[in-house]
Specification:
It comes from Bisgaardia hudsonensis. One of its GO terms (biological process) is tricarboxylic acid cycle. It catalyses: oxaloacetate + acetyl-CoA + H2O = citrate + CoA + H(+). This is Citrate synthase. By secondary structure, the chain is mostly helical. Helix content is about 50%, strand content about 5%. It has 17 helices and 6 strands. The strands form 2 sheets. Strands 1-2-3 form a 3-stranded antiparallel beta sheet, with no helix packed on it. Strands 4-5-6 form a 3-stranded antiparallel beta sheet. Helix 11 packs across helix 16. The radius of gyration is 23 Å and the shape is globular. The chain starts with a strand and ends in a 29-residue tail after the last helix. The relative contact order is 0.12. The chain binds s-citryldethia Coenzyme A. S-citryldethia Coenzyme A binds next to helix 16.
Length: about 425
């Protein structure tokens, strides 16, 4: 971060107070007015939802919402989705550079050494109802990991941080698949370390002890793409939640559980499940106008799920890749799903409708992902679990970044208070 020599801000209040505010410039993106000095002059800024607020300095991901650009450590998302393996992207996010062949082999071997979860954890699942929402289970089990790794909870110990990052990256697919197996009453499948990260996930999801399971390479590639497209996305709600939890010194397992909880909401990671529910509810192309009208109706809370984004006011670059993958998977599986027809028609109509054009509402990452996951045979209740699985490496990368010098500050926003002024309390008998 560099403070601009030429550019600075002067805040002049009508009561004559004046403040000179420095302006910071990053390597890309908007400049930032540094308002830290205001509080000592008894002034706050007001920015609900932090739409105009840079909460930190970060080097991991850059989003240009106006132009639909997403870079991970400088690499465009479409490049990574096409050319990289998820663990290469994980290495890139965690360490700042993609691994060379040797580093990739080492990193993959290290991750595979930690894919198993403690046997006691499998007993955890049996405390949940079989019909529990898998995200409720994931919130519980991921936080509970802290109870199993007392040897690595000192966040100020770099070795602890490193082993924890590997454990979380390695175990999330295992836990996610266990959620699914538990919900359908099938036995948990152990990880098969000879498989790729995404191949192993498909195996743990769909294999049974009774017969061999062949990973379909097209589905394996689709899973790899889906994991990459969901890996990280700057300071979104769940990543900001992880950073907030981390800022109090909470252990990383608790921080990831907080991120999972935040991701669950339908306005965020829960949108992929909500989007499929919406497409199923629409059911056929001729009912689309009715839902478009509802999405525009201010008195109707209905939103077009899978559309719109806090930052992208252009087509989400991940949605473009996801759309392509969708076609590949449906073709490979020879699936003609009415959901896809509804989705394609809905996208076409929405992109030409003045309301959506004016509000800059484009399909986002969640619009097509549900169709692919359904085609692969993954139930919609598992969609956000898969989002959480893939996003864990992004959450950890941001958590790790907070330990760089000067980055760790407890997150404690203020407020504009509109409650009662002081009054004295009358005891009940008065
Ligand atoms: C993710 O932040 C991230 O990076 C998140 C994410 C990630 O990778 O981490 O990208 C993943 O969460 C993607 C978003 C998934 N959510 C959905 O698909 C749910 C549907 N989308 C909306 O809920 C909404 O678009 C948000 C929450 C995503 C973003 O909303 P904004 O831009 O913060 O602001 P807003 O909700 O106030 O909407 C602005 C206007 C409003 O109209 P006006 O009152 O100004 O007239 O746009 C309208 C809204 O009514 N609007 C929509 C709409 N989204 C916004 N109208 C109809 N359908 C929609 N989907």
């Amino acid at each position: 971060m560099s403070t601009s020599e030429k550019l600075n801000a002067k805040l002049t209040l009508s009561d004559g107070r004046e403040f000179n505010l420095p302006i910071h410039q990053g390597s890309l993106g908007y400049d930032a007015v540094d308002v830290q000095s205001l509080v000592k002059n008894k002034l706050f800024t007001f920015d609900p939802g932090f739409m105009s607020t840079a909460s930190c300095v970060s080097k991991i991901t850059y989003i240009d919402g106006d132009n639909g650009i997403l870079l991970h450590r400088g690499y465009p998302i479409a490049d990574l989705a096409k050319k990289a393996d998820y663990l290469e992207v994980a290495h890139l996010l965690l360490f700042g550079e993609a691994p060379n062949e040797e580093e990739y082999k080492e990193f993959t071997k290290l991750v595979k050494k930690h894919t198993l979860v403690h046997e006691q954890i499998s007993r955890f699942f049996h405390g949940f109802r079989r019909d529990s929402h898998p995200m409720a289970v994931m919130c519980g089990v991921s936080g509970a990991l802290a109870a199993f790794y007392h040897d690595s909870l000192d966040i100020n110990n770099i070795e602890h941080r490193q082993i924890t990052a590997i454990r979380l990256l390695a175990k999330m697919p295992t836990l996610a698949a266990m959620c699914y197996k538990y919900s359908i009453g099938q036995p948990f499948m152990f990880p098969l370390n000879k498989l790729s990260y995404s191949g192993n996930f498909l195996h743990m999801m769909f294999a049974t002890p009774c017969e061999p399971y062949e990973v379909n390479p097209v589905l394996e590639k689709a899973m790899n793409t889906i994991f990459i497209l969901h890996a990280d996305h700057e300071q979104n709600a769940s990543t900001s939640t992880v950073r907030t939890a981390a800022s109090s010194g909470a252990n990383p397992f608790a921080c990831i559980a907080a991120g999972i909880a935040s991701l669950w909401g339908p306005a965020h990671g829960g949108a992929n499940e909500a989007c499929i529910n919406m497409l199923e509810e629409i059911g056929s192309v001729d009912r689309i106008p009715e839902y478009i009208a509802r999405a525009k109706d201010k008195n109707d809370p209905f939103r077009l799920m899978g559309f719109g984004h806090r930052v992208y006011k252009n087509y989400d670059p991940r949605a473009k890749v996801m759309r392509q993958t969708c076609h590949e998977v449906l073709q490979e599986l020879n699936i003609q799903t009415p959901l896809m027809d509804v989705a394609m028609e809905l996208e076409k109509i929405a992109l030409s409708d003045p309301y959506f054009i004016d509000h800059k509402l484009y399909p986002n990452v969640d619009f097509y992902s549900g169709i692919i996951l359904s085609a692969i045979g993954i139930p919609k209740s598992m969609f956000t679990v898969i989002f959480a699985l893939a996003r864990t490496v992004g959450w950890i990368a941001h958590w790790k970044e907070m330990f760089e010098p000067g980055n760790m500050k407890i997150v404690r926003p203020r407020q504009l208070y509109e409650g009662y002024t002081e009054r004295s309390f009358q005891p009940l008998d008065k």
